[in-house]
Amino acid sequence: MEFHPQPEPEQATPWAFPAPDRDRLPNGLTVLRCHRPGQQVVAVEISLDAPLEAEPEGLDGVATIMARAFSEGTDKLSAEDFTAELERCGATLDAHADHPAVRISLEVPASRLAKALGLLADALRAPAFPENEVERLVNNRLDEIPHELANPARRAAMALSAELFPAGSRLSRPRQGGEETVKRIDAAAVRAFYEDHVRPATATAVIVGDFTGVDLDQALAESLGAWTGSSAEPRPVPAVTADDTGRVVIVDRPGAVQTQLLIGRAGSDRHDRVWPAQVLGTYCLGGTLTSRLDRVLREEKGYTYGVRAFGQVLRSVPPSQGAAGTGMLAISGSVDTPNTGPALADLWAVLRTLAAEGLTEAERDVAVQNLVGVAPLKYETAAAVAATLADQVEQYLPDDFQAGLYERLAETGTVEATAAVVSAFPVDRMVTVLVGDAAEIAEPVKALGIGEVTVIPA
What we know:
Structural class: alpha+beta
Distance between the termini: 64 Å
CATH class of the largest domain: Alpha Beta
Shape: globular
Number of domains: 2
Radius of gyration: 24 Å
CATH architecture of the largest domain: 2-Layer Sandwich
């Protein structure tokens, strides 16, 4: 039987993360624009310097309610009319609050960009924050909290943050607020937070898409450029301490058939020179189906559907402060209850083996191919590019950071990646959170000797 010849791969097309043009409008708003031919859906990201740590004491969650309330009407339009105008533009508008900032995301066809920017500018310039809508958003948030507590992964994340960071740090508490604080929020509190922290002089707009035929300068001048507000001094970022003494916390869920695992510690942010090597080493450890953790716990033992290792930035510090930012390094997954002890034992064995033997050249090569090779696909959409540029702004990184990261990943060797991942996941400095049936898992976990075991209610 004769077949057609196997296709030969073509020469790879050179690719680099897009470089934005940066300028500042007369009102102080920083603008990053990135022309992407063919991207007819334009993405806009607005980063507001209103971090969670700026929330008044006892009002955790007010930043989240404010973010959600931006789409609930302006001085010109009711909530219903504002939504209808967005729909006529074919636009979507989302917003959320996180440790670095409040982020507003807009996507709209390029042909309707000017109109959508006008609506976005009105929401920022003169949000209505009507009492009935704020009350509805507060009630919605209160309804979400029991669901989050019932979700094992979310509950584990809450417990790990509370363990790692001191109670006085905003990093230790739920990002969107808990029941006791959210129920205190009203329209006056939202308005006060807005007036204290939302102004163009401390905000950044990222705009990515195909600007062919669009007078972007005029569109900005007539929309976001008309937004006014006072100037403000940069807010100092408070120092954060963390306690990653090796220990185990079991969030008791009697009768649970699975145990949710979240094993973590505090780490650095992307300013650390070891970041590229850490990304590469962490990917080899648990970044994909072919990683070491998955190979042992999923393929060989069948304990789990998947285990992942990852690093994330929580709060960066301006370089002028001369201090390190704060991140989190973690391993997450779930296993069946009877095998919780064996699964943890094997997970620690993987970490110890990694420290003793290191990564292989083959593991390093596959990781580089996956991380660098997938980048052109990852950033096909304008929204993906805009979100990454906004992340860089919030983390005080240069505009070419992401492009340089791929170059550094390709240059990182096996020895360097091994050293970084071993340092990131030391076997004696990890806080282990288990959400599961304490009566079934406590004793097997104690026998592992990975730290003092404490049981807390769900």
